[in-house]
Structure formats: structure tokens, C-alpha cells
Amino acid sequence: MKDRKKNRLDSFHYTSGYFFVTINVKNHHKVFWEIVEDEMILNKYGKIVQEKRLRLSKQYSYIKLYDFVVMPNHFHGIIYIDDVGNGRNAVLRYSLQQSIKWLSSIIWAFKTTSSKLIRKTWLKNFQRQKSFYDHIIRNEEDMNRIVEYIQRNPYKRENDEYYTK
């Protein structure tokens, strides 16, 4: 069996901090937007992604959500995981001992709930790529660069190799 490339840093626990996350639709199928009068708008599937994203901060009191954009075949977002307060410290210690990566758990929950609802809402064969891309945001300059990237991403869709009108 072919060795799979590791997506996460071995030396980082992903239990707190700011993270830039990208999640792709399998085979880059464009399912989240529609073209209406030459304008790209979110369709019902893209709205499900937005709704489930907002639900994350209600479901997990220790996370905060920042900039986010749904593209035709993927989405980007910034998530902050706080390891202080909310009675989470005992859970955090246990998780570290068990090598559970909290970012992965949160993304797994998001992908599972949104994918189930999308499939239930008439798109029976919907799938996401198995993993996700993440980047640990290390400083303010890094954060500013990523926020700008997220905000400009919809305007650069013609440069996307998977974009077609």
C-alpha cells in the first residue's frame, strides 16, 4: 500500500491557536454556486455549508470563527481554538495523552454534518476530499495575508484551473 503524505505537523497538537482551513469537494465538482445573470451566487448547498459553519461556534464554545468564503468547489475559513476556560482543560490534557487533534475533530464534525445534509437535500452522490488543508497562523502578518486571500478569492475564480463558466 502506498504511503500517504502526512498533512499535519507531528510536533504540533492542533489544540489551540489560529488555523486557516481549506476543504475541497471531491474531484473539484462545482456544487456550491450558481450563475444567475452572469453573477455567481451561493446555491442551497453553499448555504448549508455556511449554516453548518456558523453552528460550529455554538456547538463548541471554545472556538471562534473568522473570515470564511464558499467557492464553487471548495471553501476557506479561519478558525481559532481557545484552550483556556470553559472547563476544557481536563479534556485537553486527556486529548493530548490520547493524541487526539482537536482541529481534525472539529473539521470532521463539520464535514460529516454538512455532507449528510447536502446528500439528504437531493445531491445523493456528494463527497468531499478525504482530508483538508490547514495552515497554522503564526503572527499578525500571516493573518492579514490570509484574510486578504480569503476576501479576494471569489474575484480570482477565473484563474482557478477547475473553474468553467
Kindly name the structural category.
alpha+beta
Helical fraction equals: 25-40%
Spatial order of the strands forming the largest sheet: 4-5-1-6
Mean pLDDT metric = 80
Q: How many domains, as an integer?
A: 1
CATH top level is Alpha Beta
Describe this structure in words.
- It is a single chain.
- The strands form 2 sheets. The chain has a 4-stranded antiparallel sheet, with helices on both faces. It has a two-stranded antiparallel sheet with strand order 2-3.
- The chain is built from 4 helices and 6 strands.
- The N and C termini lie far apart (38 Å).
- The chain has a single domain, classed as Transposase IS200-like (Alpha-Beta Plaits, 2-Layer Sandwich).
- The longest helix is centred in the last third of the chain and has 19 residues.
- Helix 1 runs antiparallel to helix 3.
- About 3% of the residues have low confidence.
- Strand 4 and strand 5 form a beta hairpin.
- The protein has 165 residues and is an alpha+beta fold.
- 18% of the residues are buried.
